[in-house]
Amino acid sequence: MTTGYSPRRWLYTLVVLAALRLVVAAVLPLSPDEAYYRVWALAPAAGYLDHPPMVAAWIRLGMLAGGDNAFGVRLIGVLAGAGSSFFIWRAVRDLLPDVTQSGAWRACIALQATLAMAIQSVVITPDGPLVFFMSVLLWAMGRVVAGSAQRWWLVAGVAAGLACDSKYTAILPLAGIIVWLVVRLARQPEWARRQGMGLAGGIALAALCVLPVVWWNAAHGWASFVRQGGRTVDWHPGRAVQFVSELLLGQVGLMTPGIAAFFIWGQVGLVRRARQMPGAALLACMALLPACVFMQHALGDRVQANWPVVIYPVLAVGSAVVAWRWWRWAAGGGLLMGALVYIQALFAPLPLSPHTDVALRQMAGWRELASRIAAQVPAGEFIAACDYGTAAELAAVMPGRIVVGMEPRWTLFNLSHDISGSGVMVCNPRRSFSRDDFIEVEPMTRLARERRGHVAEMVDLYRVRLRDDLSATERQTIARLPTPAG
Fold first, then answer.
1. Keywords in UniProt for this one (predicted)?
2. Which of 76, 138, 313, 374 yields a CA-CA distance of 20 to 30 A from 172?
3. Would you give the DSSP letter of residue 437?
């Protein structure tokens, strides 16, 4: 056991961290993806092209409490990120009963100290609800393993279903649970008989939670399933070394090096305990099966750095078995890295290029750019953008204006498509847009989106006029995006 253990001190650390993240979330401008998810929240549906709908539900709930602004959009994500610590702590106590209470608190701090959590706690993406519901699932499965009443299978089923409603990668640790169940049922048939009704109920509830997403996909040509499944089509085994290196180095960065060492050594400890301890076997299955899938995928295609975040709660619980004395340095280093990211995003003390400064590239200068665009567009005319991120960002910061998205993806949204007349098209010079929808396209000017003299990107403005004879199908690709109240 580490010396100087104080539950109250670590609880205070988590509370202060949550308060800091609330402040950062309120001040930091929205990224294009967040602005896009804001549109989801204001156009409720059981599914969307890119992901299931949970992130939209969280944003809508936060906006009801905090307003149509960065704070409201991110509010539930910040609170849930902090709340996941409780479920991690309880999961350690049930799944790893030989671990001390100090180990349970180490697991909570380890998860919060990852760079991934530092980012996901202040920038709302589908990974936020995914991590939260995976933490709840671990808690419920811990109760099952500890021998509590069968109703905990029902809690586990709801958590599993809501995790799938957050992001499709949730299926991977769930597959790990299935592997664990099959092995345990084969070895302990009497345990299987005792769990039958509760397990069946949990499966039924999980299916019920996922049913709306399946229904939406069925009604929209399986659009979301096809989009995500299509990632396996591009296969380049000749670049396997590059993809695997990117995966491994990216995870060391998102975990932070010290926390990564704890996570890896924790898995070694779980494998050693797996035969004697059902909870350790469960955690090993939930982490190692997804890890193998990601490694296999990296042999021919790029694994996005945030995909493995789905198993971070599992890795955090497993790290509780590691009691190295220098764990404070690992956690402190992770928290420091997160703080430095916040400082750079908010104050930009380092003059980094847009390539290395993600906050500059994605978040900086949108309000100023919107003001300069609005000055050149008469009231009542529309402002369109050639990509969904720019359109969503302009909609978030241009109250009272008509902001339009023009892409096939907008046909899947329950938004107004009754757009006509003249307006301005905003487009990055590296992108292009179809001119078939217009009878007039005239270049106007080029503007810079910047922060304190550092240019994030250039955008071109075009004076455009929509064709009067657009077909109903063509009009469905042109959608008016919701803007804040003027």
1. Cell membrane, Glycosyltransferase, Membrane, Transferase, Transmembrane, Transmembrane helix
2. 76
3. T
Residue type, 382: F
Sheet with 382-385, strands from edge to edge, namely 438-451, 454-466, 422-427, 382-385, 402-406, 478-481
Question: Half-sphere exposure (CA, 13 Å, Cβ side) for 259?
Answer: 31
**Entry field: residues in the chain:** 486
Claim to verify: residue 38 and residue 137 sit in the same structural domain: yes
Residue 378 lies inside a defined structural domain of this protein: yes
Task: Return the axis-axis angle of helices 70-95 and 32-41, rounded to nearest 10°.
Answer: 90
In sequence order, what DSSP letters do the residues of 228-255 get, joined into one string? HHGGGT---GGGHHHHHHHHHHHHHHHH
pLDDT digits (tens, 9 = 90+) for 44-65: 999 999 999 999 999 999 999 9
Positions of the chain with pLDDT lower than 50, given as ranges? 1-4
d(CA 263, CA 478): 47
Do 87 and 113 lie in one domain? The reply is yes
**How much is the pLDDT for 228?**
83
Q: In the beta sheet, which residues pair with residue 443?
A: 462
**DSSP H or E run through 486:** none
Q: Would residue 244 count as lying in a domain?
A: yes
Q: Which of 73, 60, 86, 52 is nearest to 161 (CA)?
A: 52
Helix (H, G, I), strand (E, B) or coil at 124: coil
Q: What is the token pair recorded at 57?
A: 């539900």
What's the one-letter identity of residue 11? L
pLDDT tens digits, 186-203: 888 888 788 889 999 999
pLDDT score recorded for residue 2: 44
Determine the structural domain holding residue 413 and report its residue range: 362-481
Alpha carbon distance 167, 213 (integer Å): 11
Amino acid at 40: W
Spatial distance between the Cα atoms of 110 and 118, rounded to a whole number of angstroms: 11
- Confidence (pLDDT) at 327: 83
**Rg, the chain, Cα only:** 24
Terminus-to-terminus CA distance in the chain, angstroms? Answer: 58
252 with 400, same domain: the answer is: no
Listing DSSP states for 129-158 in one string gives: HHHHHHHHHHHHHHHHHTT--THHHHHHHH
The answer to whether the beta carbons of residues 51 and 66 sit under 8 Å apart is no
